Amino acid sequence: MLGVGVATAMIAVATDIGDKISRELRTYGANLIVTPQEDTLDVEIGGVNLKPPSDGAYLSEVDLPKIKGMFWRNNIVGFAPMLPVSVAVGNEKNLTLLGTYFSHHVVFGKQDFITGVRTTHPWWKVQGTWPDDNSNDVLLGDHLAARLGLKADQQINIAGQPRRIAGILSTGGAEDNQIVAPLALAQQVLGKPGAVRRIYVSAVTKPEDAFARRDPKSLSPAMYDRWYCSPYAQSIAFQLQEAIPHSHAEQIRQVAQNEGTILTRIQGLMLLITLAALLASALAVSASMATAVIERRSEVGLMKALGAGNLAVAVLFFAEATLLALLAGAVGFAGGALLAREIGHSIFDSQITVQPVLFPVILAIAVLVTFIGSAAAIRRAVKFDPVYALRGDA
Amino acid sequence: MNTPETGHVARRRAAAPHTSMFLRMLVRAAVLRRGRAASALLAMIVAAAVATAMLNLYVDVQAKLRREFRKYGANVVVVSRDGQGLPSNALSTVTSVLGGSGIAVPFAYAVARTADGHSVVVSGTDLDQAQKLDSSWWSVTGWPKASHDALVGARAVTVVGPSGKPFDLSFQGRSIRLNPAGTLKTGAAEDSRVYISLSDFTEWTHVPYSTVEISASGSPQEIGSIVQRLGQALPVADVHPVRQVTEGEANVLGKMRATLLVAAILIILTAAVCVLSTLTGWVSDRRRDFALMKALGASGRMLQGFFAAEAAALGAIGSTLGFAIGVGVAIWIGRANFHAPVSPRLSVLPVVLAGGIAIALIAAIVPISLLRRVQPATILRGE
Predict the structure, then answer these.
(1) What is the chain B residue with the closest CA to A391?
(2) How far is residue A223's CA from residue A218's CA, in Å, rounded to a whole number?
């Protein structure tokens, strides 16, 4: 019973851990990027854009909520639009002002959710406060702030307008030398309302395999449906492209590829651990069956003395084992579900839901494990010599 | 009655040390009832093997996963502070600070113009090292081998030469002819760049490298100290960890380790409980031996000692064999899952051994102390 419970918990955790770790890996930030289809080449070194500001194409901000209308919308953890604009502040001529969502309220149909860099770029740290998306407050990269000698709550002159610095941003990346502002402010500075340069999308994906790399155009309709309905980075990118007009979606390979490798490793590890749990539970079953058989040897002896064949004895014990396994499986399933929930709570701060689909699977596994575990003990029971067994000598 | 022969045997037996009978009983008990002894030993071995494999894995998995995480590329970046180049000895300084435990790759950047006037970013780097650092996520059709070979980003291809023929780039009036050796696809800024070897780059542009990307291996503390030492060694540069990479790693590793710990404890507990029940069964199964010895005049203490020694021997043998098998399993798991051997941890052995013996002793002593109160005659009569 204990064995089956532990095995259940392990199976539940193992089936769910991919999803959990995948969400943890979202700490790495967006794994998909959407750019305008007709975009010119980026001329960017160390986060400083050297491209003339008029250059390049834009996406439309109005299309953004459509991301939440895709087939895999529930796998989209968040998205953040970006609009870099060149501005001059004091002596610094070629500064980048990055317009984005911080935690923006997006409504699509009946869905209502909050997204922005705080979801897609969780490693961004702010000293002070995050600006409101509807305000004109900005964040200043920490290197830039040190260079300009500015602190949170002071004013900064951007494109002739004084803006309040809500906080100092530290990212360990190019943004440390940039000004980050709400998207509307950047659009206003650029003079292009509704323009977005690129969108970072953070999605929970399935590790890439050979099938994922197939070109959707070359697939047969049935295969195409299967490809479309699997949460591969490729198919989600494909759907993003469908959702947002004139766009090109691509996986950010640094994040997406490595995520796939690590997920595969961790799932492999959990599979092995589940096997170890099953082994341990088989052991537990065989131990208790052995004890049960020894205790009941006189009963076996009596049965045999009354003419029961080896088969009859074996069938009796197997039937008993099956009944016990079903019972233990049911109880173990409940216990295991509870255990899995505890593990989910204490380690991942989120629910591990045990799929009801697993129930028959667990029962089947419990019966199988019991059979294997009790085979040796039952073989002994069958071999008992009734004379010795009844005399109490076995 | 006392023939010389039997007297001789009796004398020899009397003269033999007390321990020999003890050992004889131990060994004969195992040999004569080998079915039961073997099943108890088997349970012990399997439990010890599972425990060893789990403990080994738990100790090693962090190092293994950390290695996987290193495929995310650089976790520390050295950038020149003023936008100018780094001093020419910067790379050797970085390599000496790293002391062999990591990869350091220099990158130099310049904006060049194509023949028809488009701007494109050209980067000079140590291509061999870059291949080591980023190969898991740079999707490259062919790495440059000869000089003047270039690796062209997937988006830059349309600008510099979609036909795959050699192309010209110019920088401050100096021009260079490059052969596209392959294309590069990452989905990020690299797609819009052209990569060439650092020697070609400096010869052509005279621009020194401005960035060193470092993939340092080790725990967060070790990486912190590397960052600190690099900062001291290169005061003109700005050294910072790539938080995107380091934070994600710490996060996932911590959770994974916790999950594994819980799993290991649960599984070991299950195995321990069933070993306990098997051994208890084995000992109570031998109550007739026990009764016989008592009837022949063995003291309670001696009996307890005997059964305890038997259990301890079983525990020791089982744990040792189980340890060997468990190490094998751990090595196999390392090969199968991580493509690298898990090094056997000898430090696990005493834990498994002590645990095995302790369980065996508990399993032996509980039924014995129950049996002590029973009259031998009752047991021998078969009740």
Answers:
(1) B382
(2) 9
Q: Chain B contact for A187, CB < 8 A? A: no
Model pLDDT, residue A139? 92
pLDDT per residue as tens digits for the range B318-356: 889 988 888 888 888 878 777 777 777 778 888 888 888
Place of tokens 């537990």: A284
Question: Which one has a higher pLDDT value, B9 or B80?
Answer: B80
Domain extent for B219: 75-241
**The tokens 């010795």 sit on which residue?**
A388
Do both B85 and B234 map to the same domain? yes
How distant is the Cα of A110 from the closest Cα of chain B, in angstroms? 32
pLDDT tens string A134-186 = 888 999 998 888 888 888 888 888 877 888 999 999 888 888 888 999 999 99
**B169 & B127 share domain:** yes
One domain for residues B285 and B349: yes
Give a yes or no: residue B21 inside a domain.
yes
Strand partners, A201: A32, A79
Same-domain pairing of B36 and B163: no
Q: Please give the interface size between A and B, counted as residue pairs whose CB atoms are below 8 Å apart.
A: 207
pLDDT digits (tens, 9 = 90+) for B199-228: 999 999 888 888 899 988 877 788 888 889
Mean pLDDT, rounded, for A90-96: 79
Looking at the domain assignment, is residue B12 inside a domain?
no
Among B241, B266, B295, the domain boundary falls at B241
User: Which residue of A253, A349, A393 is the best one to mutate when testing the B interface, meaning the one whose CB has the most B CBs within 10 A?
Assistant: A253
**Residue ranges per domain, chain A?**
31-251, 267-391
* DSSP assignments along A291-306, one per residue: HHHHHTHHHHHHHHHT
Contact call for B256 and A9, based on CB within 8 A: no
The answer as to whether B11 is a domain residue is no
Residue B1 pLDDT exceeds 50: no
Q: Which residues of B touch A27 (CB under 8 A)?
A: 247-248, 251-252
User: What is the predicted ipTM?
Assistant: 0.71
B135 & B176 share domain: yes
**Averaged over B123-131, what is the pLDDT?**
90
Looking at the fold, whether B61 and B126 belong to one and the same domain comes out as no
Identify whether residues B264 and B284 lie together within a single domain. yes
- Total domain count for chain B? 2
Instruction: Examine the domain organization and report whether B284 and B362 are in the same domain.
Output: yes
Annotate chain B with three-state secondary structure.
Answer: CCCHHHHHHHHHHHHCCHHHHHHHHHHHHHHHCHHHHHHHHHHHHHHHHHHHHHHHHHHHHHHHHHHHHHHHCCCEEEEECCCCCCCCCHHHHHHHHHCCCEEEEEEEEEEEEECCCCEEEEEEECHHHHHHHHCCCCEECCCCCCCCEEEEECCCHHHHCCCCCCEEEEECCEEEEEEEEEEEECCCHHHHEEEEEHHHHHHHHCCCCCEEEEEECCCHHHHHHHHHHHHHHCCCEEEEECHHHHHHHHHHHHHHHHHHHHHHHHHHHHHHHHHHHHHHHHHHHCHHHHHHHHHCCCCHHHHHHHHHHHHHHHHHHHHHHHHHHHHHHHHHHHHHHHCCCCCCCCCHHHHHHHHHHHHHHHHHHHHHHHHCCCCHHHHHCCC
Asked if the Cβ–Cβ distance from B119 to A294 is below 8 Å, we say no
- Say if B248 falls within a structural domain: no
